[in-house]
C-alpha cells in the first residue's frame, strides 16, 4: 500500500517519538538558485524551505541554506562549506542540473547523502561510486520524454526539432530524444543550441524553420525558456511548441505572454492539484502545504515548490527511520540515512510515488506524469 508521510510533520507541526530526549540536532544543508537565471525556480523553493519542520522525532532540525547564484562553481563552494566544514547530515539540492552534477565529487568525498531537486538522470545514473550517495526528487527525462512523444505521435506529428541550451540539460534531452523518437515514428529534423544568457535566438530559429518541423521541443530551464517560444511565434512558426518540465514556472508564462498559448509539457499531476480527485494521495499530501505557502505569500502558490517539498518528503522518511538507531552528526548516521533513502518503497511525495533501489535513485514511474497545456495563461491538466 502506498505510504503517505505524516502530514503533521510535512506541514511543520512538532512530532514527538523515539529518542525525544536526545539533544543532538539534525543538520540539513540546502543549496538552491535564489539569484541568477534560475532564480524563478529558486525563489519559490526558498520560500517553501522556510516552511519545513524544525523538529522531527524529538530532534531539532537545523537548516543551513546557501544560494549558488545559478552558478555551478558557486554550488561547489557552497557544497564544500556545508558538507566538509559544517558537516551537515544530509544535503538537499542543488535545484539545477548543472549545479547538481558539479557537486557530485564533493558529495562522494564527504560520504553524505544528497537529494537533488533537479531533473537530469545523469545526476543519479548510473549508480556508480560517484553517485552512491546521490538521490533526486524529480523524475528522469526519459519518463517525461516518453509521455511527450506519445502525445506527439497520437497527434500525427512526424517531424520534430529541438532547441536547447548548450549545457548538461540540453545534452541529456538530446540523448533521450535520439533514443526514443524512432519508437514513435518521429524524425528529429533539426537541433539547435544556445547559451542561457543569450539575448537572441533568431539564427537558431531560422535554421529550425528551414527544416519545417511540425513541432519544436524547447529543452531549457527556467525563464530563458521563454525566448525560443517568443522568437518562434514572432518569426511566423505555426506548429506545436512543447516544453520540458524544467521550464514549468509562472515566470516563463509571464515572459512569453500570449505566445505561450497552446504550448504543451509533461510533469507531475500535482502541478494542477485542483484537478486531482479529493482522495488522491499526492493531493492529500500537497494541499496542507500549499495552504501554508499561500498564507505566507499573499495567497500565491508556486508549483516550483513541489520539487523541494518532495526532496524533504524523502529525507523526512529516511530520518524517521535513522533517528531510532543512530546519532546525528556522525559518519554512521549519514551512512545509515543513505541506506534508508535507498530502501524507500511506494513513498508518496509531492511529485508522485517513489520506489528507490540499489540501481535506481530517482524511483518514479508513470504515476508521476501527466500532460499540461497553456490555456488562458496557465498550465492546465489535459490528461493524467
Write the layout of secondary structure elements.
Layout: E1 3-4, H1 7-10, E2 26-32, H2 39-49, E3 55-56, E4 59-67, H3 72-85, E5 90-92, H4 97-102, H5 104-110, E6 114-116, E7 134-136, H6 141-154, E8 159-165, H7 168-180, E9 187-194, H8 202-210, E10 215-219, H9 226-234, E11 240-243, H10 250-256, E12 264-267, H11 281-296, H12 305-322, H13 331-342, E13 347-348, E14 353-354, E15 370-375, E16 378-383
Parallel strand pairs: 1-13, 2-4, 2-5, 5-6, 6-7, 8-9, 8-10, 10-11, 11-12
Antiparallel strand pairs: 3-4, 12-15, 13-14, 15-16
Helix pairs in contact: 2-12, 6-7, 9-10, 12-13
Quickly describe the structure.
The protein has helices at 7-10, 39-49, 72-85, 97-102, 104-110, 141-154, 168-180, 202-210, 226-234, 250-256, 281-296, 305-322, 331-342; strands spanning 3-4, 26-32, 55-56, 59-67, 90-92, 114-116, 134-136, 159-165, 187-194, 215-219, 240-243, 264-267, 347-348, 353-354, 370-375, 378-383. It has 384 residues and is an alpha/beta fold.
Amino acid at each position: 500500500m502506498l505510504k503517505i508521510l505524516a502530514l503533521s510533520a510535512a506541514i511543520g507541526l512538532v512530532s514527538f517519538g523515539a529518542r525525544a530526549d536526545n539533544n543532538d540536532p539534525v543538520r540539513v544543508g540546502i543549496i538552491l538558485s535564489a539569484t541568477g537565471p534560475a532564480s524563478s525556480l529558486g525563489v519559490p523553493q526558498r520560500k517553501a524551505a522556510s516552511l519545513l519542520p524544525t523538529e522531527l522525532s524529538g530532534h531539532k532540525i537545523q537548516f543551513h541554506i546557501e544560494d549558488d547564484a545559478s552558478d555551478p562553481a558557486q554550488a561547489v563552494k557552497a557544497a564544500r562549506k556545508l558538507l566538509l566544514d559544517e558537516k551537515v547530515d544530509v544535503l538537499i539540492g542543488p535545484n539545477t542540473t548543472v549545479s547538481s552534477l558539479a557537486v557530485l565529487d564533493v558529495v562522494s568525498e564527504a560520504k553524505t547523502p544528497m537529494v537533488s531537486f533537479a531533473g537530469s538522470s545523469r545526476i543519479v545514473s548510473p549508480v556508480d561510486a560517484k553517485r552512491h550517495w546521490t538521490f533526486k526528487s524529480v523524475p528522469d527525462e526519459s519518463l517525461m520524454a516518453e509521455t511527450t512523444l506519445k502525445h506527439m505521435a497520437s497527434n500525427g506529428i512526424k517531424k520534430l526539432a529541438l532547441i536547447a541550451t548548450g549545457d548538461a540539460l540540453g545534452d541529456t534531452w538530446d540523448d533521450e530524444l535520439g533514443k526514443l523518437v524512432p519508437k514513435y515514428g518521429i524524425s528529429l529534423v533539426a537541433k539547435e543550441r544556445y547559451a542561457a544568457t543569450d539575448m537572441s535566438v533568431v539564427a537558431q530559429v531560422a535554421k529550425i524553420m528551414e527544416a519545417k518541423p511540425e513541432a519544436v521541443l524547447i529543452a531549457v530551464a527556467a525563464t530563458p525558456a521563454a525566448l525560443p517560444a517568443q522568437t518562434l511565434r514572432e518569426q511566423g512558426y505555426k506548429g506545436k511548441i512543447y516544453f520540458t518540465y524544467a521550464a514549468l514556472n509562472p515566470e516563463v508564462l509571464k515572459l512569453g505572454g500570449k505566445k505561450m498559448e497552446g504550448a504543451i509539457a509533461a510533469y507531475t499531476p500535482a502541478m494542477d492539484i485542483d484537478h486531482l480527485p479529493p482522495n488522491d494521495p499526492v493531493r492529500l499530501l500537497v494541499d496542507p502545504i500549499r495552504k501554508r505557502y499561500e498564507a505566507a505569500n499573499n495567497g500565491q502558490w508556486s508549483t516550483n515548490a513541489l520539487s523541494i517539498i518532495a526532496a524533504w518528503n524523502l529525507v523526512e522518511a529516511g530520518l524517521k527511520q535513522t533517528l531510532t538507531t543512530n546519532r546525528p552528526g556522525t559518519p554512521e548516521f549519514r551512512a545509515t540515512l543513505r541506506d534508508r533513502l535507498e530502501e524507500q518503497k511506494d513513498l508518496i511525495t509531492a511529485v508522485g510515488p517513489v520506489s528507490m533501489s540499489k540501481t535506481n535513485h530517482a524511483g518514479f514511474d508513470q504515476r508521476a506524469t501527466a500532460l499540461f497545456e497553456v490555456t488562458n495563461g496557465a498550465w492546465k491538466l489535459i490528461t493524467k
